[in-house]
Design brief:
four-stranded antiparallel β-sheet, 6 helices, 10 strands, globular
Length: about 250
């Protein structure tokens, strides 16, 4: 075998080796992204409180819980990919909504740029005011005005969380929030039963620039009156948390 042929053969093997190494590295990276992007364990289970535990004690596994398929990531020109809602459940028996909001470290860098901060805030800082806007139909006999923002036909109520839990995982930061509608005199069960609930939105404001009269830094729809309700079952972790609450 000539020296040239041997050189071509070795070069081919090197290229083949580098190709398979690159493919393997890409696969490992993709798998890491998939498995690392899941919520932390403590963010996945329901957060118990007095209202939810009382409902669970009465209903057991018959506790009504549902969700909807909605766009889960902000996609506006000014907040593309900043925030996502990785979990949202409606619990009419407890008059409660629970959500998990996620944002990654690039959102912190974007926040610094958007608000002229000298540097990106620490990831464990409490930076965001997260609330719900509940839209209720004031003219149920007229359906043509349901999609608008006319306060003559739609009533908007802001709900603040009664509980906020924080978590971190790899590049992601999490907030799990519990909203009790009793705080504003609303009944989720009645609104659903009477077909008055038009929409529920999660609004996220930078907590140093809160103005509820202006658009939020990020908004995601959690519920609308035309989308299907998808039943959610209690997990073993949910049951354990509910049954051990108060011990």
């Amino acid at each position: 075998m000539s020296r040239a042929s041997r050189g071509i053969r070795i070069t081919g093997r090197v290229i083949k080796y580098l190709f398979f190494t690159l493919v393997f590295a890409v696969i490992i990276l993709l798998l890491w992204r998939v498995f690392s992007s899941g919520d932390p364990k403590e963010m996945k289970r329901l957060t118990p409180n007095d209202k939810l535990c009382a409902a669970y004690e009465e209903k057991g596994d018959e506790l009504t819980i549902f969700r909807q398929e909605q766009k889960s990531i902000t996609s506006g020109k000014d907040n593309y990919g900043y925030f996502s809602v990785t979990q949202c459940v409606f619990i009419p028996d407890a008059n409660q909504i629970q959500i998990v909001v996620r944002y990654n470290n690039s959102t912190l860098r974007a926040l610094a740029e958007d608000f002229g901060l000298p540097e990106a805030p620490a990831r464990d800082a409490e930076l965001f005011d997260i609330s719900l806007t509940v839209a209720v139909d004031k003219t149920p006999d007229v359906t043509e005005d349901n999609a608008g923002n006319d306060t003559q036909s739609v009533a908007f109520t802001r709900i603040h969380p009664t509980t906020v839990e924080a978590g971190e995982k790899n590049l992601y930061n999490y907030r799990r929030l519990v909203f009790d509608l009793d705080s504003e005199g609303l009944s989720l069960h009645s609104l659903l039963q009477e077909n008055l609930l038009l929409a529920v939105y999660a609004d996220i404001y930078y907590n140093q620039a809160i103005n509820y009269e202006e658009h939020a830094y990020g908004t995601l729809c959690l519920y609308d009156y035309v989308s299907e309700k998808i039943e959610v079952n209690l997990t073993s972790a949910d049951r354990k948390a509910l049954e051990s609450y108060g011990e």
